[in-house]
Write a sequence for this structure.
């Protein structure tokens, strides 16, 4: 069952494409989900981490690539206007424009 779960995440494939040699995809998915819910995966990874740390087999490295860091859409500022798009007015003009027949100069 662990091989089936590892295959799924290694290949990034959908569950329905799980090879028959691993058994039913529904069974593998259900097992993964149940182990996630009941904390089995957390206990396994904690034990593996403790073992590797005790053996001094870990090298802690942290890095953040700024090309993949994105802010939330509301924190990114106002929407950009594309070519040919005009800004919308949020309120009507305070003074209406004059028409030709209202021009006081008579021109």
């Amino acid at each position: 069952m662990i091989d089936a779960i590892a295959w799924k995440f290694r290949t990034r494939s959908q569950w329905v494409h799980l090879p028959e040699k691993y058994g039913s995809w529904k069974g593998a998915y259900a097992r993964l989900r149940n182990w996630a819910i009941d904390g089995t995966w957390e206990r396994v990874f904690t034990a593996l981490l403790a073992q590797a740390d005790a053996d001094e087999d870990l090298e802690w490295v942290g890095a953040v690539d700024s090309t993949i860091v994105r802010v939330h859409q509301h924190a990114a500022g106002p929407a950009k206007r594309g070519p040919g798009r005009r800004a919308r007015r949020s309120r009507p003009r305070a003074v209406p424009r004059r028409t030709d027949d209202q021009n006081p100069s008579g021109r």
Summary: Residues 2-54 form one domain. The helical segments are 2-11, 25-38, 40-54. The chain has a mean pLDDT of 79. Residues 40-54 form the longest helix (15 residues).
